[in-house]
Amino acid sequence: MNHSFLEGPYDSGPEVTEECIGCHEPQAKDMLNSTHWLWTSCGDCECGEIEAYKDMGKRTVINNFCVAIASNEPRCTSCHAGYGWEDDTFDFNNASNIDCLVCHDNTGTYKKIPTGAGAVDTSVDLAEVAQSVGSPTRDTCGGNCHFYGGGGDNVKHGDMSSALSEPSPELDVHMGLLDFKCQNCHETSDHNVAGRFAGLPDSECRVQCSDCHGQTPHAGEYKERLDGHVDAIACQTCHIPQYAREVPTKMYWDWSQAGQDIDPVPTDEYGKATYHKKKGSFVWEKNVTPSYAWYNGSSTLYKLGDTINTDGVTVMNAPLGSRDDADSQIYPFKIHRAKQISDAEYNYLIVPDLFGGENSYWATYDWDKAAASGMEYVDMPYSGEYEFVETSLYESINHEVPPAEHSLDCSDCHLETSMMDFETLGYEGDPMLVGERFSEEVEDVRQSVEQEAPEAGEESSEGVPGFGIFLGIGMLLVVSILWGRR
Q1: What is the pLDDT of residues 313-349, one digit of tens each?
Q2: DSSP collapsed to 3 states, 80-110
Q3: Can you say how many angstroms the Cα of residue 255 is from the centroid of all Cα atoms in its chain?
Q4: What angle do CA 437, 440, 442 make, to 5 degrees?
Q5: pTM of the complete model
Q6: How far is it, in rounded angstroms, from Cα 103 to Cα 16?
């Protein structure tokens, strides 16, 4: 659409927004009710869980990256689709605060001041950007926000980095070969963008591979067997065997090491800094094999004031599901581990004031002052005693889908070469040998094989090289036949 009539000049982003609202008032009202605006559950989403998560979301929960929005708004909200969110007095009902350009710029020149509560960088020609507006691109969705979650390229998600701006087909077949935009999968209705990040209840309705590919997507000689995996195995599990394949991702963050003057700053094999005075020490990884867990689309959620696990790791958002849950599938996850500040007496995580205030950590390098300031901001008691505790946070892996020939093979998950921890997933062992998810038939076969095992005094198969593989292949054939009869 031609927007050449937007000549300006404009001195600020809100001036452009006023022009937008002049023609797009209904869209502005929709935006005010969206998750991308509220950073909590959207008001009109119809996914069945909104009441349970009412008022919960990115601006109210705690994570183990930069911890929390509260008391740190001017820095964190540089990724918000708005202007002026400086503290907890921000008016979410004022459409003039909406930043239309951050999503709709098509020049690739739009950027915000990193510490400016969403303010536009002074180098931006607002008239030129306003005239260019159109549908969001991978650069506006990712380059302006999602690729840089957690404070840097691919820090947070592991499967979303700057490499997806112009990916090769080998990195992501949907975007690199088919030229998908984000909204090809994340369909949008009334400015609510479909998609649910594991553990964040403000995410809108789930996007699943089956939305496009259906429940029987395979072809070829082994179609029936492969389609039979769909009930228990998420598409991503086989089709994203590794993540962070081009840009490393942060896997561990130790806040307790912050505040030291280390010169020179150490770097790892990828050239990534493993220390920052303001943030502590890090571990980066590349070509990471996911962790696997049953997942039914919902997660537990650590809420402000919840008691931590004093005997081990506090899990911020464990995926819900199990082998016995028919709505669950085995999904791939990135698990980000961290060491972050907690109240030593109350045994709950602390929201530290990291940025902005005179007592913030980045101003004082004093954790006691930062803890007192942050907890006062969120109206929670602080005992005056703090310690650092281990936490983990699950990130669902959905992007960086390579061509089908790079998906996992049967032997990657089964038999002696298995990379799956089936016992942790609720099986007694490899389900190809001990019984599938709900299949009594396979269990009967396993028992019959055991009954035919050598008696005492007979030659044992334990010393026969490759016997386990031979038995496994035989079992696979039996299971395939039985599955075909179901």
Answers
A1: 999 999 999 999 999 999 999 999 999 999 999 999 9
A2: CCECCCCCCCCCCCCHHHECCHHHHCCCCCC
A3: 21
A4: 80
A5: 0.86
A6: 13
